[in-house]
Amino acid sequence: MLDLGELWSPIRLTLELAAITTVMLLIIGTPIAWWLARSKARWKEAVATVVAMPLVLPPTVLGFYLLVTLGPNGPGGWLAGLAGGRSLAFTFEGLVIGSVIYSMPFVVQPIRNAFEAFGERPLEVAATLRATPWDTFWSVAVPLARPGFMTGAVLGFAHTVGEFGVILMIGGNIPGETKVLSVAIYDYVETLQWTEAHILAGGMLVFSFSVILTMMVLEKRMGRPGL
Amino acid sequence: MNAGEARIDVAFAGTLGAFSLDVSFQAPTKGITALFGPSGCGKTSVLRCMAGLNRLTGKLTVGDEVWQDDATNTFRKPYDRPIGYVFQEASLFPHLSVRSNLLFGARRASKKANANALKFDDIVALLGISHLLERAPLALSGGERQRVAIGRALLSQPQLLLMDEPLAALDRMTKEEILPYLEALHESLLIPIVYVSHDITEVERLADTLVLLQDGRVVAAGPLYTLQSDPELPLLQAPEASVTIEGQVMRFDETYTLTTLAVAGGELVVPGHQGAAGGLRRLRISASDVSFTRVIPRETTILNCLPARILSITSHGGGNAAQVNVIAGLGEDGNGARIVGRITRKSKEALEMVEGAQVFAQIKSVALIAAKSGSALAAPNSPSR
After folding, report:
1. Which residues are in the ABC transporter domain (chain B) (predicted)?
2. Does residue B289 lie in a domain region?
3. 3-state secondary structure A159-186
């Protein structure tokens, strides 16, 4: 018999994780992207490389290091200790930290590209019109980079939804806490619950298709500077 | 320029990339000062340093305000300088409407409100952009965009307007469309303008003061007219050498549709009705349109034939070139306006033309290049900091 509550729980968890991760990524990723786009520091490409690492690292490798970091003997454990816990591994908070690192390049890269695309000129114009750098950032740079933010947010969200390896390594399979969609599907297949697996997998298929389609349409529309 | 008069003092030295710059000049705090020279002579760099967009060591004072002085480690950031800057490309913000573009600087400047601020409606009317306000910048023509950019710079209530070849990116037709607006600005605006150009015709139409630049150095600086008739300067060697002088409308001859204008040392007749008596006009006399005679010519089609005295003669191209440049002062004593004529060395010797000789200057054509009148717009208060 189909248990809808059991099916819904990983979906809700996944959406929560992806939403929180996306917001965190926009907050953390924007200054990083700005710095990477504007800085003349020689070592900035080294920083860019670190940000891009999750693109090529096997999720298990990243997951392994995250497990060590978040575990009771790492900084994550110390952080958890402040809140009365023992470890950040196998918690929802741990998943958020892992997802932020894992999805970082998908958010930072499009925003950085967008910041680089409009060049120095609009910023110089704003400066000659009495706008301070902080003012210029909000009134000129962010609106001009809007397509980059859209792409980054959509990619960051979707990539987090599709996460599997890292989650399995640092989150395990705790229902309602760390059992997200991709893990749930894996679970259902393992236990031969094909109907449930079909529903979730089919849903993911539709979701992925809509995300990519939305993005392509958005990009086409944003290609013309919007007004 | 009197020592006590308010002025702009500019001195920058240093290297930008592989280019070395070492300039120093003064500009008056009224009228248009043109930075003129070939591409790559450093004029844009000077302008960017004045705006604070680039930094070279040096000093910049505008009126009694110090904007940069490395001796006291003073450097005001671009957004702390009351400037307007017009770039070669209009560079409007594509995410804002024309109106919001125009108000971008105005809103930020209004915090330090000026009593006699340049009014939005006046500027919009002066630049002829009132019908464009709700449009998107991308929906404008090149000329319209540049006019909006000029308006945007003006509405930030600058005390100094910096213009970096605002017409260079435009085609000839569009240039002709914008020049009258710039001339109107020139006449109605009480703030100084520093105008970078490599096009002598723009300079002739707009500039009062000229700073000649070459290879990152100042070759000469002074009133446009003085530099144009200076035998030592490269301006005279240009194929299109000319002088720009000011004339006042005296009377209009209805029978022949001719206007007589008074210039220093004489009167000139030009075709057409050139406005009411008393109006000031800027006249351009090309060196190739001026010839000289020793006696007053009796039967000639040339209307303008004025007594003059030769002030100097220099070879055009050096050595035994075929042509010479003759600088003559109008009037029998030669104290009037200076004009330049280009004649052959052969004629010069045949007529025994030497410095100090009495001659008659025949001016085949006089071009009116700008009206020198118009209602004055208010300028922002002078700094009171």
Report:
1. 5-240
2. yes
3. HHHCCCHHHHHHCCCCCCCCCCHHHHHH
Residue A227 has pLDDT above 50, yes or no: no
| B60-69 contacts, C-beta under 8 A, 24 or more apart | B60/B8, B60/B9, B60/B10, B60/B11, B60/B12, B61/B8, B61/B9, B62/B8, B62/B29, B62/B159, B62/B160, B63/B6, B63/B7, B63/B8, B63/B29, B63/B159, B63/B382, B63/B383, B64/B6, B64/B383, B65/B383, B65/B385
Cβ B51–A225 below 8 Å, yes or no? Answer: no
Considering the domain architecture, whether residues B200 and B92 belong to the same structural domain is answered as: yes
Domain that holds residue B72: 7-236
B376, pLDDT greater than 50: no
Q: Does A216 touch chain B (CB under 8 A)?
A: no
Same domain, B204 and B329: no
**Could you give the 3-state DSSP secondary structure of residue B14?**
strand
Note whether residue B379 is domain-resident. Answer: no
Q: What is the mean pLDDT of residues B327-344?
A: 92
B-contacting residues in A 140-169 (Cβ below 8 Å): 140, 143-144, 146
Question: pTM (2 decimals)?
Answer: 0.86
Count of CB atoms situated within 10 Å of the CB of B258: 16
- Closest to A111 measured CA to CA, from A23, A37, A22: A37
Per the CB < 8 A criterion, the answer to whether B246 and B280 are in contact is: yes
Question: What confidence category does residue B279 fall into, taking pLDDT thresholds of 50, 70 and 90?
Answer: confident
Q: Residue A30: which CATH number?
A: 1.10.3720.10
A62 belongs to a structural domain: yes
Q: Does one domain contain both B86 and B197?
A: yes
Tokens read off for A113: 């590209």
B264 and B131: one domain?
no
Closest partner residue to B83 among A121, A128, A140, by Cβ? A128
Specify whether B231 is located in the same domain as B295.
Answer: no
CB < 8 Å to A125, chain B: 85, 87, 91, 93
pLDDT digits (tens, 9 = 90+) for B209-218: 999 999 999 9
| Closest CA–CA distance from residue B311 to any residue of chain A (Å) | 46
Tally of domains in chain A: 1
Q: How far apart are the CA of A214 and the nearest CA of chain B, in angstroms?
A: 22
B32 shares contact with chain A (CB less than 8 Å):
no
Tell me what pLDDT residue B232 has.
Answer: 83
Task: Check whether residue B315 and residue B347 sit in a common domain.
Answer: yes
Confidence at residue A225, expressed as pLDDT on a 0 to 100 scale: 45
pLDDT of B113: 56
Q: Are B228 and B241 in contact (CB under 8 A)?
A: yes
